[in-house]
Amino acid sequence: MSLSPTVLWLIAGVILCIMEMTLPTAFVEFTMGVSAIVVGLVALVVPHFGIQVVLWLALSVILTVLSRRFIPQSKHRLIADATEAQTITEILPGQTGRVLYEGNSWQARCEDDEMAIAPNQRVYVVERRGNTLIVMPESLLRAQPQQFP
């Protein structure tokens, strides 16, 4: 039994859409599935498989890029309470270094781009930007008086 390209594209599209529900990929599988369903319908008119594949790839890329406009992007993740970490390497001004945070080594940068932090210093994690922690040295936080509203 031979399945037509139209049926194969439709089956692939449905499988990709279902996979998005079980293994979320920020709508990438969904856009690829919708593209496959559209190509399945176009395959009724355009029988050349090479053109169908190129159309599927182009539609998948276009729909994925367009879907990014509707997915909210979190730029920075604020950490609710400043938590302690310890520098492993020196953090030079405007550069990244390494800190030990929750038992793991993390890339870190000082919140003040003009300040250096020596190794083996206690710091407080105040923010997370991607895989980089934003830290403040403990000595700086102790030197500032508490301000209450």
What does this structure look like?
This protein is α+β, with helices and mostly antiparallel strands. Strand 1 and strand 2 (96-101) form a beta hairpin. The protein is built from 4 helices and 5 strands, in the order H-H-H-E-E-E-E-E-H. Helix 1 (5-22) runs antiparallel to helix 2 (28-42). Strands 1-2-3-5-4 form a 5-stranded mixed beta barrel. The protein has helices spanning 5-22, 28-42, 49-67, 138-143; strands spanning 77-87, 96-101, 104-110, 122-129, 132-137. 39% of the residues lie in helices and 26% in strands. The mean pLDDT is 85. It is rod-shaped and about 75 Å long.
Features:
alpha+beta; 149 residues
Topology of helices and strands:
Layout: H1 5-22, H2 28-42, H3 49-67, E1 77-87, E2 96-101, E3 104-110, E4 122-129, E5 132-137, H4 138-143
Parallel strand pairs: 3-5
Antiparallel strand pairs: 1-2, 1-4, 2-3, 4-5
Helix pairs in contact: 1-2, 2-3
Write a brief caption for the model.
With 149 residues, the chain is α+β, with helices and mostly antiparallel strands. It is built from four helices and five strands. It starts with a helix and ends in a 6-residue tail after the last helix.
